[in-house]
Amino acid sequence: MKTMESKQEIINLLNVFNIECKVISHEAAFTINEMLALNLPKAEFVAKNLFVRLNKTTWKSSRIH
C-alpha cells in the first residue's frame, strides 16, 4: 500500500483546486471514544467510517420472491 504517496497525492489535488487543508497525524483510533481521547483540535467534527458488508447467503435467503 502506498499510504504516504497517496496522502501526498490527495494534498496535491486539494492544492490544485485551491482547497485549504490542514493535515493532523495521530495514532490509530478504532472508536469515537479513542479518537476523542487523543484531544485533537475540532474533535466535535470527527466522523467514524462505517463499512457495511452484505452477506450473500443472508441476502439470498431474505429476498422476496
Shape: extended
Mean pLDDT, all residues: 79
Derived structural class: mainly alpha
> How many strand units?
0
Q: Helix count?
A: 3
Helix and strand sequence: HHH
What fraction of the residues are assigned to beta strands by DSSP?
A: under 5%
Radius of gyration over all CA atoms, rounded: 18 Å
**Termini Cα gap:** 42 Å
Poorly predicted runs: none
Largest sheet: none
Helix content: 40-55%
Summed up:
With 65 residues, the chain is mostly helical.
Produce the secondary structure layout.
Blueprint lengths: L2 H14 L15 H6 L18 H7 L3
Describe the structure.
- By secondary structure, the chain is mainly alpha-helical.
- Helices cover 42% and strands 0% of the residues.
- The protein has 3 helices and no strands.
- It has helices at residues 3-16, 32-37, 56-62.
- It is extended, with a radius of gyration of 18 Å.
Task: Quickly list its features.
single chain, 65 residues, mainly alpha, 3 helices, extended
